Amino acid sequence: MSNRLGKYExxxxxxxxxxxxxxxxxxxxxxxxxxxxxxxxETQEEGVPSTAIREVAAxxxxxxxxxxxxxxxIHQNNDLYIITExxxxxxxxxxxxxxxxxxxxxxxxxxxxxxxQLLLGMEYCHSHRMMHRDLxxxxxxxxxxxxxxxxxxxxxRMYSIPMRAYTHEVVTLxxxxxxxxxxxxxxxxxxxxxxxxxxxxxxxxxxxxxKGDSEIDQLYKIFQILGTPNESVWPGLSNLPEWRxxxxxxxxxxxxxxxxxxxxxxxxxxxxxxxYDPAQRITVKEALNHPYFDSLRxxx
Length: 300
Description:
alpha+beta; RNA polymerase II CTD heptapeptide repeat kinase activity; about 35% helix; cyclin-dependent kinase; 10 strands; 3-stranded antiparallel β-sheet; kinase
């Protein structure tokens, strides 16, 4: 066991999360650069944290070019190491780096390519009945060749029929869908589509689309752009636990004006992703067939 860990040389610390530290490391046998997530088990009263179990289970099952590859799992002493392939940047850092060289947003062709790859990865997850539940730019890696990989499956959940009630402590606030903000008890795959829509808008504009600082502020930020929903656009809305009839009545704004770098097909796709009623929201499979991607299917 220790020999397996010994072949990985830590190069630098990449970041720290709730459950562990992530390092850039090198396999001294093959020279392959990898990412190494170290999870301390002695601080966990219940043993291995559920997020680590979910992540390992998901990555063991999911084999796809747009999902980060699991290379090894090593349990040593009081630590669990999850070794995965390495990419230079996450999407958030990549967008920030572009900003620093004077580019406020990603090139439209790159936005289209990244979105297409994100949808391909998520279509694979959804076809395996898995909800990611924490899609955000920090959980998407990109490399210098323009390849995209989805990471961080610690909140992944199997989607089952009949549908079950799930926790609301999922999805980082800016990417959290209105049904979860309004306290819906049973939700499913459309929660990921909302997150993808928020990432799509952010890639186009260079800044988060709905930037709330609390759950109620997040709802208001959504209402201010998409308009305050009602029963006609979202049947059953008034039965949701956190819905209040006294919410301010905002009129919808033009998404074409809010996302000036998107062509009309891109605006249409974004609009279909950011639909209030989860039952009416476009699926990842339908999104992949949208005319916005025609240029990828039929290159000039």
